[in-house]
Design brief:
The protein is an alpha/beta fold. Helices cover 41% and strands 22% of the residues. The strands form 3 sheets. It has a 5-stranded parallel beta sheet, with helices on both faces. A 4-stranded antiparallel beta sheet has the order 6-7-8-9, with helices on one face. A two-stranded antiparallel sheet has the order 10-11. Strand 7 (132-135) and strand 8 form a beta hairpin. The model has no long low-confidence stretch (mean pLDDT 88).
């Protein structure tokens, strides 16, 4: 999933981002509402983790703008206030979920994953194709019963390919969905990740290269 964390407390923002990256999510961060709107206009985020009390542009206004723009992005709003009236107001401006600070990180992860499933067409949390089983919540992969240890990026690339259900996925799309905005658009990171993923998945090869187009997962 591609996530945007909007939080003006830098330490908290980086902690959230790193925790989500450990679960193979691509995460961008920013610390004010204006930057959030700029990034949201550039990237098709699955979920935005949005602090309500932001400088420059208030979180409520960011949420309204994201909702008004349409698309499938889901918003989970973070706030220091647990008042019922504040939660009701958050839902009223378009938030999909609401979490009061301080919160348990495991709960935030579970809520982000649930919203991410809602942001896309409904798919099961465990994906299966050609003997490969990818368990998203447990972050586990196996092929024909053999467990395979993947890096975060390899897991993310495999998830994108499996969700495509045999359709071709371009290198640009893989870069957009599995890496954050700090990646060099001219990098060979996708090719290297696919190469090591092929090796780890073993024989017969599953990932096909479609010349000039991208990659797909065979049957």
């Amino acid at each position: 999933m591609r996530i945007l964390v909007v939080e003006d407390e830098v330490i908290l923002a980086e902690a959230i981002a790193e925790g989500l990256r450990q679960r193979a999510m691509a995460v961008d961060t920013c610390g004010d509402g204006a930057s959030a709107l700029e990034l949201a206009a550039l990237h098709p985020y699955d979920v935005i983790v949005l602090d309500r009390d932001l400088p420059v542009v208030h979180g409520d206004d960011v949420c309204r703008a994201v909702v008004a723009a349409g698309g499938d992005t889901r918003v989970i709003m973070l706030t220091a206030s647990g008042d019922v009236a504040d939660r009701v107001h958050g839902f009223g401006v378009g938030a999909d979920d609401y979490l009061t600070k301080p919160f348990a990180f495991a709960e935030l992860v579970a809520r982000v994953q649930a919203l991410g499933r809602r942001a896309r067409a409904a798919v099961p949390p465990v994906l299966r194709r050609a003997g490969v089983e990818l368990d998203v919540p447990r972050h586990q992969v196996s092929r024909d019963g053999r467990f395979i240890l993947l890096s975060r990026k390899e897991f993310a690339v495999l998830e994108v390919l499996m969700r495509a259900d045999g359709a071709v996925v371009s290198a640009e799309e893989l870069l957009e969905k599995a890496w954050d905005s700090n990646v060099d658009p001219f990098t060979n990171a996708v090719r290297m990740a696919v190469m090591t993923l092929r090796r780890k998945l073993g024989s017969p090869p599953l990932i096909e290269t479609v010349a000039g187009v991208g990659y797909r997962l065979g049957n």
